[in-house]
């Protein structure tokens, strides 16, 4: 396993942001973490890289217990673990040129000799689809999509083994988002990256993840292969989350109520206040994650309703869209 | 038509020159119908809506005609009707809710001003409205302040205020973009129900094509300040006739999977201070021909209710030529 978390927990005041998560990602895999706002996805990502300290639990990176590393050893490890943020505006220092931004991790971790830095920066920029001549420009001279490419180049410059993308395409317009999704897929494949994708966009998740973990109020409620989660979701929350994605005819009745406050989560199964299947036991006893799902009734629930995503454009639209791939021209 | 916008232009004067944010936009919405407006960030969706309700800043110069139920909307009429016959809701409810007043007081205020209800009756009608937007325990919640509500609840309060006076026209600018999907589904279902009950005409600005598919009757696709395609929603998805729409539909990753690379529109939107002279999509369009660069295509009727601004539409021609 490239990364393995064991019963990891972290509180902020009374909020149990991450409440006992066990999860692992194999080398070269893409794991998506999904769930609604405030369920603990970003906190989990920061814990996984030990950017914040867990209250309990163990985090192993390539077999090594991150909690046991000295500050110095941890700093050296950082070149292997990188984070890409949602906001390309916030994650780049406005006073650094593109070249300085991408070169910083190279110099910090002594990755290439000083004389080779410029060459390596040019190579990284080309990789993310930017012309190397742009290296002397400032972040504000770029569009949102270009800035996200720069942030990706910077994250990948040190040659990391593990990259966490925290909503890496969420701030982008659909057309630009597709460019960056394609780029991330290429990079993951070509560089053999292990990637954790934190995202609320289930279409993007379906497109690039190998496995999916679904979180609700600090806990993982379901985990499995992407195909299984999307075609045969088991946990009632996973089902509701998928059914709520618009574009399926609007037929499914929406889940009632809001996500409860994380500082005062319901006892027992956190989801029981909104679950259409809840029984007495759900209100008192917290279900453990067993066989990929945390639900007392997992084996007794009716099969999930199949997704009915309409694709009315048919062959004509598919043929027209071919022209939008790989710079085709008609 | 409840709302009719005809050849709307909006210019902003900035310290870096003049910018035409909206360039000849025409739209219409009938009673009880939902028109979705989609398009890239900066394409002029919000500016168009703000022009209709008269909420653009003073620096904006507005041209063209806007009418509500056939009567021209002058700035005076816009001021008088806003919050009554015509209402707007925004992505971030906190920007339009007043933190110093309770939810109930804010709904009641609309009813006092526009329907002339006495304070007591207005408050009671306000509570009933909060109940109608499914705020649990509305009587008690009406006495709470905006910061005591969750994001989804605040958006419900906004909808209650907007719909309190059963407006003829509701402009909803990305009303659910900031919300979680499960809450978004609740809010959009609620808007659909209220619209059916009141016959309100709705303009729904969104960047989510799934939302359009589920909730819109008609769609206008905007690009760089212009409407490039207009069609009944089902028709737009089945037979898009503008290359930008085709690219947009292909750029959305499908929930049902589908292997391979996403269709993506190369490049970025033009700088609105110096837009391309001919078709504004030409620098990104795989179907571009010489004429596109020289001359801007007008919206041309492809079928009843379906218009596309493209020299190469209907696009079956492109496929035949290929
Ligand atoms: N530094 C902090 N101090 C206090 N509370 C925090 C802190 N960071 C996170 N939290 C709280 O922990 C919970 C989980 O937050 P987190 O940011 O991990 O959620 P998320 O799933 O990433 O949400 P989103 O989808 O909105 O990004 C939330 O209730 C949040 O308010
Ligand atoms: N007050 C203003 N002064 C100057 N320019 C403005 C002003 N308001 C909007 N603009 C410009 O007008 C154009 C259209 O903006 P608008 O807000 O309508 O875009 P939009 O389609 O709503 O985009 P988004 O999806 O990002 O909300 C943009 O180029 C924007 O920068
Ligand atoms: S444990 Fe009970 S409340 Fe929780 S998801 Fe399963 S059925 Fe629903
Ligand atoms: S007019 Fe030309 S450039 Fe514009 S969308 Fe049509 S084919 Fe493309
Ligand atoms: Mg987050
Ligand atoms: Mg807008």
Outline the secondary-structure elements.
The complex is a heterodimer of chains A (330) and B (322).
Chain A: E1 3-12, E2 15-25, E3 30-34, H1 41-48, E4 56-61, E5 64-65, H2 71-77, E6 81-84, H3 98-108, H4 117-127, H5 144-156, E7 162-166, H6 174-191, E8 194-198, H7 202-208, E9 211-216, E10 219-225, H8 226-231, H9 236-244, H10 280-284, H11 314-322
Chain B: E1 3-14, E2 17-29, E3 34-39, H1 45-53, E4 60-68, E5 71-72, H2 75-81, E6 86-89, H3 103-115, H4 119-132, H5 138-141, H6 151-163, E7 169-173, H7 181-198, E8 201-205, H8 209-215, E9 218-223, E10 226-232, H9 233-238, H10 243-251, H11 290-294, E11 300-303, E12 306-308, H12 316-321
Parallel strand pairs in B: 3-8, 3-9, 6-7, 7-8
Antiparallel strand pairs in B: 1-2, 1-4, 4-5, 9-10, 10-12, 11-12
Helix pairs in contact in B: 3-4, 3-6, 4-6, 6-7
The structure holds adenosine-5'-triphosphate (2 copies), iron/sulfur cluster (SF4) (2 copies) and magnesium ion (2 copies).
